[in-house]
Amino acid sequence: MYFSLSYRNMGKTLTAGEGSSCSRYNYWTVGTAYQSCENPLPVLSKFHNSSAEFRFANRDLRLTQDWKKLGVAAVVWDAAVVMCMYLELGKVELKGKRVIELGAGTGLVGIVAALLGAHVTITDREPALDFLSANVEANLTPAPQQPVVVSELTWGVALERYPAGGFDLVLGADIIYLEDTFPSLIRTLEHLCSDATAVLLACKIRYERDTNFLSMLKRGFHVEEVHYDQERDIHLYRARKLPTRRDL
Question: For tag attachment on the chain, is the N or C end more exposed, with fewer CB atoms within 10 Å?
C-alpha cells in the first residue's frame, strides 16, 4: 500500500490553480463560488471553510479544513501555498529525494512534494494525525511513484526514531510562530540534517520573535532568502547546516 500511518511515541511568475479569475492560487469552498477579486472575503473567513481546493503538479487537490476542532493546524495558510508554487518551479530537485515535512497541518506541502516525485515523510503532533492522514490519503490516489508516510513528530522529543542526517530536504511552512518551540525546532533540524541537507522554510515575518528565530538558526546554519511573495507577504528561506568545526 502506498500510504502508511506511523504512530511514534513522541509527543510564474509563480503560477498555480489555472482557472482562477484573478491570477492567484485557486481557492474555493465546496458547494460555493470561489473567492473572486471583485468580492474578496474577509481575511480569516477562508480558514472557517470546510475545504480548500488547489491545482498543483497537474492534479486537482481538495484539502479538508477544521478550524473549530484543530485550529491553526487544520487550515491552509498562504505560506504553504507559496511553498508549493516554489516547488513547482523546479528550483529544488525532488524526484527520488528523501523529504520530510515538519508541522504539516493539512499536508498540502508534503502532498505536492510527493506528486513531484519525492519520497516523503509528513509529520505533525499526534492530535492532528488522523486529520492529516485523511487529507494525504484522499489526495494521493492513485498512488504516487514513491511511498508516503504520515508520522508523529514532536520537535525535540525522541529524535532518535528518525535517522540522523537522513533526509535530503526538510520542509516547513508557517511553523515559526511560537517562541517557546524555537529551541526544540532547531534541535530537530540539527538532527534531521546532514551537511548536504537543504531546509526550506516559508513564513510571514509578523513579529520580532520571527526574526529572532532566524538569528538563532544562523548559529548553526547558513541561511539565505530565496524568494519573496509580495502579494501574500511570504518569505522563503533556504538553510544548510554549517560544517562541524574540528579542533586541529
Answer: C
